[in-house]
């Protein structure tokens, strides 16, 4: 399987062994059994999914089953679910011989990640101190899918260069870090981040980049022949792009407030995404001598508007404000693919297969700061007094927080997310360098043959 | 088109003629005209889809249009609809030269089957004795899609070996048998089976296997070159897998009780499916010398948790109970692909193209028995007194049935479903051996050229 | 890039230059900036998506957030959104080397069109005279998607023969014309057309055909080698077909009345589509010597029932009436692909790449007339007095209109839609003949290489 004795940092060095016949089943079995035990101890149905709902309804004077949160959120949940599995999965099928790994490993780690997320997020956000239990409903499922998204984004930077066992480790730590940073940002700092510009995209993007940086492969050019698309693999990737693009309004509105909150978040995201498409096309066309478009840009940068609206979508950013966000991030993201990714690889020794820097890290960071600005600019006349309290949740110990302060905390939250991504990713990267995980040799990357039975 | 004079049982024997130019249009036209006439006689809008709804609302003190069942069930209906047409259809595109037949014939027979299902299920379940009419609404559409699923599962066992005319016959009888067994199981035995482990999967699986057994082709090895996938056909099949996997929570919750019933069924199915993915990967990896994964397992066995939760999803099986179900069925299903399918082919002369035994028949049967056990273990403290009545519908003549009895009936229902599948399938198989249906010769199977204009 | 000096009408004639490096970015940037400015001036959130919703609820005695229109329409909106981007997009991937252009340009023009549609439809339908603003909510998003559909249909006739800049022009004028004809048909003539048989399909179809007729290319046979499918491109196209087919019930019901209106429209469309599949298969099989099916028919004509139900879906057409509509239009559409398209090309010099005449123009026109007949035949006994008023909106200045008159107006509306399509298309076609748009030479059509970086 080639040899890697030319690895520069070189503190671990022996021939690569990509046999995962023991490690992959072991990880899957042991962790799944652990999930079952922990679910047995901690996880229960919440009052809206428990058979006691009939009693609960009566006690709370709820007149109709339609008031069950299921009917507010389940359609959005399913859209998010499609984004996680088909959206992220097919977006990563673009490589000519790594489509199985793209969609298949995405499937594996999301299926594990969502279970671990229900536990981690439950412990941090919804553990009932009286009973010691976590009560789950449809909103928990959405949050679990969101939590996975962080690790799936990280996978985008690592695509083709790591083993499935490494990806399980990335996901285990990714979900854990996510739950902690989310607790700090949403609960301690009391930020709003419904669509996760900060907690999902900035965190996930920088997490993946930091891991990839630590795992730098100086001889990756040996696999260059496979690091690209063929005609049909680009069409497959468009399935991912389009499902992400179409359902992003559901992503950003899935857990916002009932009523106007969900409604407004969907509209804003829809507009920002539309705007991104036009500027992506413009920049992509300008970058080629004859104005030809590049599929990489169309597949990725068109989504930047959705990422950047993750925080501000539920705010009164105005429809034209949403268009402006999409306009700018479409440009920035396409420039990222044209100039920043090659720069990072050449000068920072950072190999980012899917360009998650341009689609998630950077637009996510921008989205965090956009959210901060829009929050700081909020006024009672625009939101109404009650609306302001609702949107920013100025209740309890935060009743007296002003919008300026809120803006400051939103900006701080963005920094926390980035810091967690960078530091966490660096540590996880070091763990992944231990030579027991079955990762491929430099001349064997981007190749499904390593981990899949491929029929000729 | 080759000759089949080596057919072992040999009671019909002449050269194959795959020309369906008369039979296929005839079947489509005549049956569609029959549908129109029967719909004219029997099918009407129900009170929620009729223009009299305004009056109905007033008479029944319904305060809002949102109480119309459309808003409770339409999103789930659409998810189920995607599973039937894209899920089943694309799952069957995995063969290298039978993708047109996989997705195209699936489309044809589902479009016919749902019409016939509306009639058959209507006669058995909702014929108004006063008017002699069947009144349909969104729940009828979901049930019609479910009813088709039985026949589409059977198609999985026959994929590549039968003509479209034969498939229409399979569907005509499949839907008919389905409506009868469903009536016996749900109405006479008063079983609960919201996601159809018994009535859909166990029935459909054994129905297809029995047909395939009767249609055994001793010289099928002559088409061996086409009985396999190529790289891109495996990626197409993943579209089917993922849409089935993602929307299975909607499948199992689509017709459960409003409120907690739908909510809980979705959560349980979501968890069982996640768990199946990890154990499928584990067993698949263990089965290869170097730990490589097999796409066949990932495409199919990952779904076993959804099948096995078809009965129990609406019960209080607990979240960890759901994980355990997915854990076990993922293992069993993957073992099925590794050992049972080859065994069935070699010793029972049963050719099962998609391995429906492992994905539907066996997990469906297990799901039926799991449902029986969970029902028998139900208690008032877990469900609440009202909850128990609601979930198991202990009303009217069943008001005094205990949970133990219910468990027994659930188990009996599973056996009824299997019996209907096996006996019905054997009879339909014999009908399909009449040499008038245009089925392909043994050396001509798994080939789209037989029934499709294929451009070079 | 070849020469076109053989163009018959010949009023512009010089060698083709397909370089769009200036024109495409310029159009994208300028128009997107114009959108931002116009949105800034005109577009605001409506009362259901504005943060003042809490106050609005209180003032209007709305007891629950679930009464927000978002929950009535968002699931349908997302289905429509999938149809626009994945449905139309992937349906147009069927050509062997134009899949990027099919799905990519569809993406671009829909993303532009929906923004322009929000403005145009807003000015005509919902401009508040007091404030001079357009207030948007989820129903506006659905209508914007609908409005794009007209231009995307037109793209189907032009596929492979025009530049992206030309498509932007087609969309700019298409959306403009759409908003005007929609205003005339729905507001002035007070027609009902929830699913747009007239305003979307008849208009869009004839619009595209008229453009294509003006852009007739006598030497298009030089690109004949690329005007066809390969095996996998046909499978990709089935993704488009199936998502269109499955979600068409949502399309036709998305903006109908709450309650029975949406419910009935979904049922009727579901049935018509099912019926179309069987007759399409029948005619397709009859048309070949050995009864083989043609993918072109299955991909397209199966959808004709949905198009033809666009007007009548919300009426009490009865379930068997819906089946009859699907039955007939499936036949007519397939015959169109077999005989009318070749006829149009040979004798009318009309090149229609996707056959939009057979799928949209003709079934749309038929749908308009079917709607007229069903409207004229409406009775109080079938609809109830209130139901009749609700369905046909006989209120205000239309309170005394009878159903017969309504039928007449519906028929007139169909003619208006066709006239707008033909005249508008002819004018736009002439504009597109100006040799500044970068369209390909006759021997260079149907080829992604012209506008895309294609990796070998």
UniProtKB/TrEMBL annotation, chains A, B, C:
The gene is rhcga. It is a multi-pass membrane protein. Belongs to the ammonium transporter (TC 2.A.49) family. Rh subfamily. Pfam families: Ammonium_transp (PF00909). The chain crosses the membrane at residues 22-43, 80-98, 105-124, 136-158, 165-186, 198-216, 228-247, 267-286, 298-317, 323-340, 361-378, 411-432. It is found in: Cell membrane. GO terms for molecular function: ammonium channel activity. PANTHER family: AMMONIUM TRANSPORTER, AMMONIUM TRANSPORTER RH TYPE C. Residues 70-447 form the Ammonium transporter AmtB-like domain. Functions as an ammonia transporter. May play a role in the elimination of ammonia in the gill. Homotrimer. GO terms for biological process: ammonium homeostasis. Its main location: membrane. Gene3D superfamilies: Ammonium transporter AmtB like domains. Keywords: Ammonia transport, Cell membrane, Glycoprotein, Membrane, Transmembrane, Transmembrane helix, Transport. InterPro entries: Ammonium/urea_transptr, NH4_transpt_AmtB-like_dom, RhesusRHD. GO terms for cellular component: plasma membrane. This is Rh family, C glycoprotein a.
